[in-house]
Design brief:
- This protein has 824 residues and is α+β, with helices and mostly antiparallel strands.
- Helices cover 26% and strands 23% of the residues.
- It starts with 6 loop residues before the first strand and ends with a strand.
């Protein structure tokens, strides 16, 4: 498999686990955007529930660990907290509800004091190997893996020299031994060295933390049970396997010792079972029992199943590129998503893994794009198990959000706040004058159904989709037969902003979402045999929405944005010929343009409302919008870099001054794909991807100076997949936007296309070599001719005769589960 040649390499020990000095009280609370929990640079491994980050240094290698279901479940779900208030920017309506770490298992190896650090992650096997090399050149290796089908972290030690080591567990508020920046749970001050005051003014309860040592096992639990809506608890127990032939040395250890001798050339295996209340009744006891009685044979069986799971995961689909930098990032992103996302009830938090108690944005599911984005690329690659967790927060909050809608807007439907948690928890009860988060989540569900046409899945999410439809049927304002969006902004707003700038109307992203949503709702309801009487109304809304707000740059110099982002005008950053190009504005009433938040491409993607099959004039406006964002990003980046040079202090890599398009902290994960969707120059797209990876990429898949976490795992795979295959418009397009001159060789296998198709294709010397299509649903298949101007032969299974097709589009009929091959 192609994945086998791709790995992640870390040549330095992690420096940011955890990181930041954060004042979370009063007006300083929003410093969390810049400093709190946003810089995890460690190798991460997991099985979609148990997560671990490799950290520490040569002397103290350690594993921070937690589970996706371990939250402090304190909710702000009372309706009165769903508000937009003028102080939201400095004192947001947050609860204490957010994901929590359990702590860190630390190994103290004196012989490796000052050792060089090298870590390699093998994507194909889900294994991480850390090699420590001391001053004498002696190596100690730690091969770690989280069992794919059980919550156990396994660490296999092997050394070239005799080692004496100690192991111990530390809770997140305990500093020392390789971590000097842990959280002081009880503190209230500030320090440049540790993160004090994390809980001040935010958390009413305290964790119950218990640790025990005995029988060669370090065990304990962390529990949140006071001032919470749902008690949570995680138990753990760690120790080395008892010494048998082939494992460790032959000497005897004290039953109560956490000391271990490892002979040169011998192996010693450490196991850390972890259990939670969400999965079993007595997590501490279950974890301790597993650690006490597990055998080498058990670990071997676990490893065999672990390798089989990863082999199956990678067999689902694959790509081959002639650019190793981008290919590696594609597989790294898939590996990370496979590691952090699988539990259907507990999605990974915005940062992927929690390593301290006060994460940025409460570490929650921020549903005005952050939560939705990482799951988008998983559906085309067929990794539906990893995309399943997306839906849970929406489905669990339906009852309270329906009540919220009735109380606040006085009509039926689902109205969602911005910061969700699991099991109906509301972590940040903010609205900030946005109504689109719920429909944004619905788009992911429609995407999933459109690709699979899985009626069982549709049945599960249909009550939510129907609730979203009810909301917009009641909330849209009809004027002269045209439906307008009122009181919904593209950007987050406080009441003070509304007083200064007025109530926003017709944001271009929401209009695009509504177009797609109400076009697909009749199709889904028909497939399920539901709501026949609603279909005509839904289609009528889709066909009569307000037009997208448009205009030129020259017309909006007095209102390019709602906030003072920069001290330069748009017209000063663009050539004269671009000032009169028609572009999409952010909102019909409200802000028109943002230098740093390119939200006026979201109707293109993920809205799926504009693409290569759109009206040529509409497509031209979309391309102009993408191009001007890209040009402004470059021009503004050059200007800011020049200013930094003039100041001659704190000058960074020039690439870090670029922001607002391909490199926007918000939305870069969607901007690339939006550019692909409208046919923007693929050579530019490719170069921007490569530059981003080489200048900003860190080895675990995240980006330097971008505080957002797992959404960054969408950027490369999503763009590459759409460059290789597009199908959402009902037409399969093969390598529709591809840099064929500089990258003439590529292939993909088993990508999912809308309509229940599975497609494989290869590009050789810049020309499509072959195309294979498998139908899972027995629909007519419409394909844009991969060989323009040439006739196409179609070979079928089941002894059907070959066909020859001509023209721009090829229409073929396939039986269910039948393959067809296209060639010239």
């Amino acid at each position: 498999m192609r994945v086998e040649r791709n790995k992640a390499i870390f040549t330095e020990p992690p420096a940011a686990v955890p990181d930041g000095n954060v004042d979370v009280s009063g007006s300083g609370r929003w410093k969390i955007w810049q400093n709190a929990g946003t810089k995890i640079d460690a190798p991460i491994l997991g099985n979609g529930d148990l997560l671990a980050a490799v950290a520490g240094d040569g002397r103290y290698p350690q594993f921070w660990f937690t589970t996706n279901d371990f939250w402090q479940m304190e909710s702000a779900a009372n309706w009165e907290f769903f508000h937009d208030n003028s102080s939201a920017k400095c004192d947001p309506a947050v609860s204490g509800g957010s994901p929590r770490p359990v702590g860190r298992m630390v190994f103290d190896i004196p012989a490796m004091e000052g050792a060089k650090w090298y870590t390699e992650q093998n994507f194909a096997t889900g294994e991480t190997i850390t090699i420590l090399t001391n001053s004498a050149g002696e190596k100690c290796s730690l091969k770690s893996w989280v069992a794919a089908d059980e919550n156990i972290l396994v660490v296999e030690f092997e050394s070239e020299t005799d080692l004496d080591l100690e192991f111990d567990f530390y809770f997140p508020d305990e500093t020392g031994k390789g971590c000097e920046k842990a959280v002081d749970v009880w503190g209230s001050g500030e320090s440049e060295y540790i993160q004090n005051g994390m809980f001040v003014g935010l958390v009413t309860g305290r964790p119950l933390q218990v640790k025990k040592i005995g029988g060669g096992i370090v065990s304990g639990y962390r529990q949140f049970s006071d001032h919470v809506d749902i008690p949570t608890k995680v138990g753990f127990a760690g120790g080395f396997l008892k010494e048998t032939k082939g494992f460790g040395n032959t000497g005897k250890l004290s039953d109560r010792s956490t000391h271990r001798k490892i002979k040169a050339g011998k192996k010693a295996t450490f196991v850390l079972p972890v259990r939670s209340w969400a999965k079993c009744s007595r997590p501490y006891e279950y974890a301790f029992s597993r650690a006490r009685w597990i055998t080498a044979e058990d670990v071997e069986a676990l490893h065999e199943r672990h390798l089989a799971w990863w082999k199956k995961f990678w067999s689902v689909s694959e790509i081959v590129l002639d650019d190793p930098v981008i290919e590696q990032r594609y597989y790294l992103s898939k590996y990370m998503l496979a590691s952090v996302s699988r539990d259907p009830e507990y999605p990974p938090n915005i940062l992927g893994i929690s390593t301290f108690d006060r994460p940025a944005w409460n570490g929650n599911y921020k549903i005005n794009y952050n939560h939705q984005s990482p799951y988008l690329n998983l559906m085309v690659s067929g990794h539906f198990q990893q995309s399943d967790p997306h839906d849970a927060p929406y489905l669990k909050l339906m009852e309270i959000s329906d009540e919220m809608c009735k109380r606040l807007l006085h009509h039926e439907g689902l109205y969602y706040p911005l910061g969700l948690g699991p099991h109906g928890l509301v972590s940040e009860a903010l609205l900030l004058h946005m109504k689109s988060p719920a429909i944004h989540g619905a788009l992911n569900m429609i995407y999933r159904y459109g690709i699979t046409e899985d009626e069982t899945y549709a049945q599960r999410v249909y009550p939510y989709l129907r609730g979203v439809a009810d909301f917009w049927e009641k909330d849209l304002v009809c004027r002269d037969g045209v439906y307008h969006v009122v009181g919904d902004g593209m950007h987050e707003r406080t009441d003070g902003n509304i007083r200064d700038n007025g109530v926003p109307e017709d944001p271009v992203n929401t209009l695009g979402y509504l177009k797609t949503f109400f076009t697909w709702m009749p199709k889904i309801s028909e497939a399920l045999g539901l709501d026949e009487k609603k279909r005509e109304k839904w289609l009528e809304i889709a066909e009569n929405l307000a037009p997208y707000p448009k205009g030129t740059i020259r017309e909006i110099q007095d209102n390019p944005t709602l906030w003072k982002e920069v001290d330069v005008k748009l017209e000063d950053l663009l050539p004269e010929e671009m000032l009169d190009k028609e572009i999409y504005y952010d909102e019909g009433v409200g802000g028109k343009w943002s230098f740093h938040f390119p939200g006026n491409v979201m109707q293109i993607y993920p809205g799926n409302a504009i693409g290569l099959g759109s009206d040529p004039e509409e497509l031209e406006v979309a391309r102009n919008t993408v191009q001007i964002h890209a040009m402004v990003e470059n021009a503004l980046g050059e200007l800011e870099y020049k200013r930094a040079l003039e100041k001659a202090e704190g000058v960074k890599n020039p690439h870090f001054y670029k922001a607002g398009a391909f490199n926007a902290s918000n939305l870069s994960c969607l901007f690339f794909t939006a550019a692909v969707r409208v046919g923007y120059d693929p050579e530019i797209i490719w170069k921007e991807m490569r530059d981003m990876i080489l200048n900003r990429g860190i080895p675990n898949g995240f980006l330097k100076e971008n505080p957002h976490g797992i959404e960054q795992l969408n950027t490369i795979p999503d763009a590459i997949q759409e460059m290789m295959l597009q199908s959402y418009e009902g037409v399969i397009r093969i390598f529709p936007v591809w840099p064929r001159v500089k990258h003439p060789n590529a292939s993909f296998r088993n990508f999912r296309a809308w309509g229940g198709f599975e497609v494989s294709a290869a590009l050789k010397n810049g020309e499509v070599e072959r195309v294979t299509i498998l139908s899972h649903k027995e629909h007519p298949c419409r394909i844009e001719n991969p060989w323009p101007g040439k006739s196409v032969k179609v070979s079928y299974e089941y002894g059907r005769p070959n066909e020859v097709h001509f023209g721009e589009y090829i229409n073929i009929e396939l039986h269910k589960e039948e393959h067809a091959e296209l060639f010239i």
